[in-house]
Automatic annotation (TrEMBL):
One of its GO terms (molecular function) is metal ion binding. Keywords: 2Fe-2S, Dioxygenase, Iron, Iron-sulfur, Metal-binding, Oxidoreductase. PANTHER family: 3-KETOSTEROID-9-ALPHA-MONOOXYGENASE, OXYGENASE COMPONENT (PTHR21266:SF60), IRON-SULFUR DOMAIN CONTAINING PROTEIN (PTHR21266). It comes from Atelocyanobacterium thalassa (isolate ALOHA). The lineage of its organism: Bacteria, Bacillati, Cyanobacteriota, Cyanophyceae, Oscillatoriophycideae. This is Ring-hydroxylating dioxygenase, large terminal subunit.
Length: 349
């Protein structure tokens, strides 16, 4: 069974899917989470269970900064989770209602996605100053994604991550006329990788042969791919005319399923007219990976011995090394040190 990383930021929902004065229920890392947006646009997250009788608070209502439970009307402040009112109490009751509290989570909205920080519940509560910044896409400022698609994968987060970062599955899983067509032409790929703060990056290089969609960006299209724990992959493309970015974030629902958030950003001023088509193609692209994962589960149910080979699977090996070192740093309360070294990887694809 995999171990889900904590003390990390996870995407909970796309900004476009949470309107003002609305609340939604999500299950993340096996926990029930209520996510809401106040009238002023501020987002918040808290445990989706009323401490009185256990009914999910998401069945209740949001009023200004308070969540009211639909069962008995208990009211909780969404900023700190403290109880503000218990309607059934009388003047003869001696109960300090503020001592009753619902767990709240650090929650931020950045570049069109709403992120939640999950503190290690086995450790003491981290101070706000200990919480790192939300992952952002460099050079894209406050730009929101042109499109965002979400899809559930019926597998643990490890298989989803190593499946999506796998450089050798493309010709077989993503063989489509609108992406690449004609007979498969395999070439030896040689890429330079180096460590970053909590992961690794494919060092930017100019693509000698671009797939059809990349040519929109102009000539001399460069690509840089960054992967960081717990499951954030950023693919940045820059041409001599425009830039684009594909942000893929993987959030575990529980040990056996996860949710993929894929956001596409661009600086192309006229691309908005193609949003419906781009959304369709993005869903198809994700669905191809999802379908392969579903088929993979048929074999994994027998708990077979699996193998990872060099160099095509080296990135998967790096992911497990990074995860192991991160877990060790958390358990021993020591700083995380990236165990990877710069390396050139080669494979045929």
């Amino acid at each position: 069974m995999t171990t889900l990383l904590r003390n990390c930021w996870y995407v909970a929902v796309s900004s476009k899917d949470l309107k003002p004065k609305k609340i939604i229920h999500k299950k993340i890392l096996g926990e029930p989470i209520l996510i809401g947006r106040k009238k002023n646009g501020q987002v918040f997250a808290m445990r989706d269970i009323c401490p009185h009788r256990g009914i999910p608070l998401s069945y209740g209502s949001l009023d200004q900064d308070d969540i009211t439970c639909r069962y008995h009307g208990w009211k909780f402040n969404t900023n700190n989770g403290k109880c503000k009112e218990i309607p059934s109490l009388t003047k003869y009751d001696n109960l300090d209602v503020e001592r009753i509290q619902v767990l709240t989570y650090p929650c931020e909205e950045v570049q069109g996605n709403i992120w939640i920080y999950f503190i290690n519940t086995n450790k003491s509560q981290s101070k706000s100053t200990d919480i790192p910044s939300v992952p952002t896409i460099p050079d894209f400022g406050k730009l929101s994604p042109g499109i965002t698609e979400t899809m559930q994968f019926s597998c643990n987060i490890d298989h989803a991550i190593i499946g999506l970062m796998d450089p050798a599955h493309g010709p077989y899983i993503h063989d489509a006329w609108w992406w690449r067509s004609g007979p498969r032409k395999f070439r030896v790929k040689e890429k330079h990788y180096e460590p970053v703060s909590q992961g690794f990056r494919l060092v930017s290089y100019n693509m000698p042969v671009s797939a059809r969609p990349y040519k929109i960006l102009g000539k001399d299209v460069s690509i840089e791919i960054i992967f960081q724990l717990p499951g954030v992959r950023t693919e940045i493309l820059k041409g001599d005319r425009y830039s684009a970015c594909l942000l893929t974030c993987i959030t575990p629902i529980d040990e056996y399923s996860c949710e993929i958030f894929q956001s596409v950003y661009w600086t192309i001023p006229w691309a908005a007219v193609f949003k419906p088509l781009l959304s369709l193609l993005t869903r198809q692209f994700l669905a191809q990976d999802r379908d392969a994962i579903i088929q993979q589960q048929e074999g994994l149910m027998y708990d077979p011995s699996l193998m990872l080979i060099d160099d095509a699977d080296t990135q998967a090996k790096w992911y497990f090394r990074l995860k192991q070192e991160y877990q060790r740093s958390q358990e021993n309360n020591i700083p995380f040190v990236n165990p990877l070294d710069p390396k050139i990887l080669r494979w045929r694809s």
